[in-house]
Amino acid sequence: MSKLYDFTSLSALLQCEQEWTYRYQQHLARPTADVSPHFGTAVHVGVRALFDGQPQEAVADAVSASWGDFVAPDKKAHLNLSYAQQVVEMYGEVYGLGGAQQVATVGPGLGGATHLPASPASPFELVLNEHYLEAPERSLCGIVDRVVRSKQDGALYVMDLKTTGLYLGQAWFEQWRHSLQAAIYLDLVELKLAQPVAGFWVDAVHLDRRGYPKREDFMRVGPFPYSQEQRKELRALVDDLVFRARELSGELTTHISRFTPKKNPRSCFRFNALCPFFQFCTLDPQDRADAVRMGLASGDFLETPWEPSKRK
Ligand code: SF4
What we know:
Layout: H1 7-15, H2 17-25, E1 28-29, H3 35-51, H4 56-67, H5 81-95, E2 114-115, E3 124-135, E4 140-150, E5 156-164, H6 170-174, H7 180-193, E6 197-206, E7 218-224, H8 228-248, E8 269-270, E9 273-274, H9 278-281, H10 288-297, E10 302-303
Parallel strand pairs: 5-6
Antiparallel strand pairs: 1-10, 2-7, 3-4, 4-5, 6-7, 8-9
């Protein structure tokens, strides 16, 4: 069976083919996880447990187990286990999950999308909770956070949880109106459920250096509708990326195959940090394989295959 590619891998490919090759072909990773994704994973685990209806103690245990003995670096010391636990606990309070008392919040509308107020009765029914989905005929896979059915219009929606240190302003929300990830998830869910999906909701949690959550940090905004024409356009982009991933991984041989991954030097510095593979890319090409071997031997890098189905 052909290998399956998820949004994380395809997004890396779009960013820099060389980085994708280091990460997803050579499976190189730093031995210590980055704190932001580690924090996000712990919150995802806790929220999944809330949607599963687990009691508060079990939810807290799930967050702790996900966190393990990880210690955040000094410059992001606020992203610690206690903050993750508080975020999950308040998520339960705000949205009435995990036996917590629900608290109503109201926010402004955004460009035709709605900031969903929590209400005594949830406006959604849960259909799928953090579910791994595949579309082998397109070599695609992904874990969808939630699929919900609106009690108001009866339609299905994908709802994706995002933890972010960025300001939750209009531009941040608007990005989900035109998202490759949303397009992939809408297709995967429609295939799985054999029903149309009407759009995408973003379930956002703002994080900041204060290190404890406030109710206004929790905002659900949507629905972002995707027309069939928009989805066709984004689907073509996804399929092109999958084709290129298969080409680079040697799965395909075509008469115009370009097996050498392209570098994208514009991506070398992002989020105030260098790409983890910068030390290789700044060497002459003939010296890179030895440098990678040394990086592995010294423990600077580990070989960690990316397995989307076991991501969380
Ligand atoms: S250092 Fe730059 S060119 Fe090299 S893999 Fe990273 S992003 Fe790509």
